[in-house]
Amino acid sequence: xxxxxxxDLWTVxxxxxxxxxxxxxxLEANKEAGLKGFWMGYFGSRAAPMGAVPAxxxxxxxxxxxxxxxxxxxxDAWRFASPERILGIxxxxxxxxxxxxxxxxxxxxxxxxxxxxxAVAEADAAGRPLFGANRDLDVPDDPVEALWQAATALRExxxxxxxxxxxxxxxxxxxxxxxxxxxxxxxxxxxxISRGWSREQWDEAADALAARGLVEGGTATxxxxxxxxxxxxxxxxxxxxPYRAVDDPKALYDLLVPAAEAVADAGEMPxxxxxxxxxxxxx
Length: 283
Hints:
The chain is mostly helical. Helices cover about 70% and strands about 0% of the residues. The protein contains 15 helices and two strands. It has helices at about 5-20, 25-35, 35-45, 55-60, 65-70, 75-80, 85-100, 105-120, 130-135, 145-170, 175-180, 190-195, 200-210, 220-240, 250-265, and strands spanning about 215, 220.
């Protein structure tokens, strides 16, 4: 199996997971649970599998966000809604969104669930706190909710590995965002708004990357593009092992493509987006 299949599968699993951030069913569920505003909903719902962790844990595991953005939401989130309460509603809300958006999602869930849950079960959680926390949740009885939970666990597995690669290359949360924008994977305006950094901090980080010969005038140099390509290749390599437990990863990808396209076509998640996710087939 070529490691690049891990990237292909990310492009179809990430949209299924990402309904939890963008779709009205999920935003309303966070509000009904007691979480105040978008960012408390985001940090609280995504961190809930780890329990009522302090802000430092969220800052470390989520990566890329200004610490103050995290600390405005955590630990206050746990005063409004316990992790157990959040876990009781987040998957069900995502399943409602997927049923509304994706024709035939029940069939897709039935066809892909065995392979996805095998991949989750076989994946190594060492050094992957967000993945490990999601893997240990009970598999929901509802098939669409179970599909969403598997997609979530596998995207967090990839994300944990990606953070490890970024830090090994001497990048912190801010400089990794600046490099991503410099190669065109995201826009600087999106990242400043969504990740909470100031323009001054962004420019200082760009200067630091320029001193390393990676960025010039807001655009990645050849060395910067090579570094970003190496980061993505290493991320793929670290994300690939779970899919070796799947008999036919390419067939699994093909089964998930229509669902991912339907989510993209629904229009709530922008392209380009702060996740850096390309549309299916454009990775």
